[in-house]
Amino acid sequence: MNFELKTIDSLGAANEKCDALIVLLSQSFKPGKDALSGLVAQVLKAGDLDYKAGKSLAIYRPTGMACSRVVLAGVGDGAAKDVRQAVATAVAALKAGSLKKLVICFASLPKDEAVRAAVMAVADASYVFTTTKSRPEGRVIQRVLLGMPNAVKFRPVFDQVVASVKGIEFAKEWANRPANHATPSLLGGAARSLAKFPKIKCEVLGPKEVAKLGMGSFMAVAQGSDEPLRFIVLRYDGAAKTQAPTVLVGKGITFDSGGISIKPAPEMDEMKFDMSGAASVLGVFRALAELQPAINVVGLIPSCENLINGRAVKPGDVVTSMSGQTIEILNTDAEGRLVLCDALTYAERFKPRAVVDIATLTGACVIALGAVRSGLFSTHDDLAAALVSAGESSLDLCWRMPLDDDYAEGLKTNFADVANVAGRAAGSITAAKFLQRFTSKYPWAHLDIAGTAWKSGAAKGATGRPVALLLAYLLASSK
Ligand code: BES
Ligand code: MN
Ligand code: ZN
Q1: Which sequence spans correspond to the domains of the chain?
Q2: How far is the CA of 100 from the centre of ligand 1 (A)?
């Protein structure tokens, strides 16, 4: 899909040739003398529409206008949330038609967030996954023109959100792929494909190298599968070598059966999404490739399957992590933290300014925060605040959770330095407390995206979250 940005007033919008024109009407709209303004005035007078968010009206072949269809949509005072909803609803309703060129027009000067919302909503509403269909019917919308008064002012915001969408769609593609089309090796290939872009380098380690590094915890998870593990190291070098990088660590479990502590059958297919953290790291690199900002970023992805064979790790087994700490694996389904802890230790070598891990880590986080906000865990107030505000500005929300040491009580065991699970209470926090033990060398934050990375039910599919949040955070931290 191709996005363009252009300055247009209501006369320009009326004259723009396209399959559909979506006009976002906010309270501050000042009608002119053109056909579109006339139409809006008529509709408002007749009481068929007002500026309220959620109200819309579609018209076919409007007189005196160059478009085939026009949708007039109220967006209240132009809040990003309302713009997102208006565009999503309009695109969903128009999707049935043969819609190649779409124009979205802000009738009055929008806020930066509203521009972001419009681009993200049209991309999201028109996305289709086709990789495993025998007769793919791809996305119909090919061109989207975003029109508004004074477009020049919005160029940087526009470029950032278009890059963000590229990253989101890369993440969606890989997260949506079924596990047999997204093995650890294939994920390694996806990462390597990013190294064709300027400033990006990629290295993919296999079982031998990982054993040599002493990643006994990661290896314990991988040993139950015939599919070999991969440890992916991505680098984006956009700034001087002297500038400490931000490290992103993504959980890359390409399928989570639970292992010997096997999961129940219903919805187990959704555990193909258990590499959504990894996909979001790949997505961020895809966006960096587009934007080429002056920052340094490292991406680390420990990737394997959590399966069951005769060599699979058993409840009660004790393994030694790369950090030297021994871990009693009481539940093989708490595998995410076992692969992440070794990646977090590996991250030390980059002397990072900050490390952020992203993981579909706990069902408990879904219970706590649902699909609205990702769970954020950090003891560094500045880092936490920066991530929260990046989430707000990119409409990819998160919520900070506590990390009191008392929550770590349940991880104590008689048989190792730490157990990999505590009780059922506060499950997303005890998981974070486990990870925290491996992060003493740098400022660290953890994002639990178990509730936000994909949707279930009829709209089942990856969301591409939290690519937008991470990208906003990285770009803001470079200023
Ligand atoms: N990948 C799951 C977490 C998950 C569950 C994400 C449901 C999305 C929806 C993770 O590996 C897991 O199985 N966690 C366990 C931990 C428990 C054994 C302490 C969980 O949440 O049940
Ligand atoms: Mn699990
Ligand atoms: Zn998992």
Answers
A1: 2-151, 166-477
A2: 41
pLDDT in tens, 227-272: 999 999 999 999 999 999 999 999 999 999 999 999 999 999 999 9
pLDDT of 355-403, one tens digit each?
Answer: 999 999 999 999 999 999 999 999 999 999 999 999 999 999 999 999 9
337 is catalytic: yes
Residue at 252: amino acid letter: G
Res 31: pLDDT: 85
Model confidence pTM above 0.85: yes
Protein residues with CB under 6 Å of any ligand 1 atom: 256, 274, 331, 333-336, 360-364, 366, 421, 427, 450
Q: Closest Cα to residue 355, out of 366, 341, 365?
A: 341
Q: Which CATH class is domain 166-477?
A: alpha beta
Q: Which residues of 161-186 are buried (b: 16+ CB within 10 A; e: fewer)?
A: bbbbbbbbbbbbbbbbbebeebbbeb
- Residue 378: phi and psi, rounded to 5, are -165, 145
Q: Which helix (H) or strand (E) holds 478?
A: none
Q: Please give the full DSSP string across 355-388, using - where no structure is assigned.
A: EEEEE---HHHHHHHTTT-EEEEES-HHHHHHHH
Cβ proximity of 330 and 281 under 8 Å: no
Domain 2-151, CATH: 3.40.220.10
The confidence score (pLDDT) of residue 50 equals: 87
